[in-house]
Write a structure and sequence with these properties.
The chain is built from three helices and ten strands; from the N terminus they run βαβαβββαβββββ. It is mainly beta. Strand 4 and strand 5 (77-82) form a beta hairpin. The protein starts with a strand and ends with a strand.
């Protein structure tokens, strides 16, 4: 059985229809910060349960609902979420973390270090420079983690 996690970040107040379409059918959504406005998380919750963290642009009373980091267990995998990977203060191997989700850079990236998957879905919000508009889907099975970056310009 495959558990699908939609991973989105840096929406900066813009939730594109293409993102909603690509996330339809996922079992859970992780937002890696820079949400931009509280309605974004509410709209994502219409699709699936959401784990979201606060990014550097998330200010005001509404943003206090979200912490700077979250650790969530989904499909028997431990996932640590923070906005800026440079702020990582946890040794993921020692802490038994399977996946680190980050955002902030707007650059999509999949990497594996010492058996830990590092996943940045890129930015799904307003275009920054010439960077792509992306999000990720992480397919989790009992044997594997399969991250896929989706370019929303292709939808």
């Amino acid at each position: 059985m495959t558990f699908k996690i939609g991973i989105i970040s840096d929406t900066h107040g813009l939730l594109r229809p293409e993102a909603m379409h690509r996330l339809s059918g996922v079992d859970h959504i992780i937002h890696g910060g820079d949400i931009g406005r509280p309605e974004i998380v509410a709209e994502l919750r219409d699709i699936a349960p959401v784990t979201a963290i606060r990014g550097n642009v998330d200010k005001g009373d509404w943003a206090r609902e979200f912490s700077k980091t979250e650790r969530v267990r989904l499909a028997e995998r431990s996932i640590f979420v923070l906005h800026d990977l440079k702020a990582l203060e946890v040794d993921p191997v020692a802490a038994g973390i399977d996946v680190i989700v980050s955002g902030h850079s707007h650059v999509p990236k999949i990497d594996e270090v010492d058996g830990v998957l590092f996943l940045n879905p890129g930015s799904a919000g307003p275009r920054r420079f010439k960077l792509p508009i992306t999000l990720a889907i992480l397919e989790v099975t009992s044997h594997a983690l399969r991250p896929i970056i989706h370019d929303l310009d292709d939808c």
